[in-house]
Amino acid sequence: MASREAIEVGIVGCSGIAQIVHLPILAQLDGTSVTAVCDIDIAKAETVAERFQIAAAYSSIEELLEHPDLDSVIVCTPNHVHAEHTELALQAGLHVLCERPLATSREQAARTLDCARQAGRILMVENSHRFRPDAWALRRSISNGELGQVFHMHASWQRRRARRPRISEWRLSREYGGGVLMDLGVTNLDFCLWLLGYPAPERLTAYLPDRDGDGVEDTAVVLMRLERDVTCSIEVTWDLAAVEDQHSFVALGAAGFGSLYPFVIQRVTPGGVLDMTPRLAPGSENIYRASYRREFSYFISVVQGEREEPLPEEQEVLLSIVEACYRSAEEDREILL
Q1: CA 192, CA 199: separation in Å to the nearest integer?
Q2: How distant is the alpha carbon of residue 104 from its chain centre?
Q3: Mutual angle of helices 82-91 and 106-119, in 10-degree steps
Q4: Which of 207, 252, 289, 321 satisfies CB 3.0 to 4.6 Å to 152 for a cystine?
Q5: What pLDDT digit, counting tens, does each position of 30-56 carry?
Q6: For residue 321, what are the CA distances in angstroms to 98, 137, 138, 174?
Q7: Where are the beta strands (DSSP E) in the chain?
Q8: Is the pTM above the cut of 0.85?
Q9: In 3D, which of 97, 78, 100 has the Cα closest to residue 86?
């Protein structure tokens, strides 16, 4: 396909994130056109199609995959069917951008990656945090040694209680891949590992309390040791009693320090501590929406053949960590990986 041709996209699952983030951004992107949506709630799919002026609405992914001229799909369904829906689309010859996580187990992720290899199609996992300019600047500082040997990473995402999932939501079902570890924790785990180049995990301990007794953890605290004697701590919760969500991200190195909230990079020199924080171009758009926009543009450019993107094989590592976290919490012990 010529790079200037518009890529036709189908949206699988008319969830909140599809309506609030994906569809509004995709509608403004050059080189792409959303031509079909599907949802098991056909009334929702039809309403979304009408709202965003999309040609077709279907009640199943199987129907959507028969829509003519589709090039790719974006999977926005609940976690437990991400792998299934991704594999169906790949087998139909379409490229896929799947909301994180790719699967709910390492075994499932491995099977989906094999499916992408066999199909010869592009598969990306939605990790919009990787498309933030401040994150890229910090990653460069780590990789080029400005911080010295990084020995600890810490990431925290504390969501205010007013935004916690409602009783009817799939995020409160372990069967559906719910729980705060899968909801918020996988993002912070990937963030830390990606910034470091995905070093191999060696051991971890996790605490996953279900304070509300609704069947899934509402808080997750994970302490992990990686190769090269690097440690990593993750804290996420749905139960912050505050007006606004709180975020923290810190990288500690032998010769420097990096932070994203606020964005700061500092290095120790013989003359004292030097501020190495690069100036980033100001933007008028919310940083999270802007990162999604960059990721969608990148995905479209890969589909158009303008860039190459390897398969997200690190998803196997990520899901093996998640599985070990649940084992650690259930067995109340450290898990060797």
Answers
A1: 10
A2: 13
A3: 10
A4: 252
A5: 999 999 999 999 999 999 999 999 999
A6: 19, 26, 24, 17
A7: 7-12, 32-38, 56-58, 72-75, 95-99, 123-126, 150-160, 201-207, 219-226, 230-240, 246-253, 256-260, 263-269, 272-275, 335-336
A8: yes
A9: 97
